[in-house]
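Board notes (copied after class):
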Amino acid sequence: MIIKASAALRNDYTTISNLAKETKEPIYITKNGEGDMVLMSIDAFEKREQILELRSRVLQAEQERLSGAKTMSVSEARKALRERLNEV
């Protein structure tokens, strides 16, 4: 976990920005010794958003399966994908 004071962000933005890009980790910014905000690179943020979207889709599919929605086996899915690929 990377923690920096808000003064570091104000006084040395470039270093903090580079640190966020290099580590691809969120940087926790404190103000008066208390947590205030989290800073991360755009790439890290976009990757995090993609992961959250994928998790949401998986959860939705699992809820549908548990509710009795029609499912297919792996071989049926492969066959359907091959058919779609041949259509293109």
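Comment from the instructor: The beta strands are 2-5, 27-31, 34-39. The mean pLDDT is 95.
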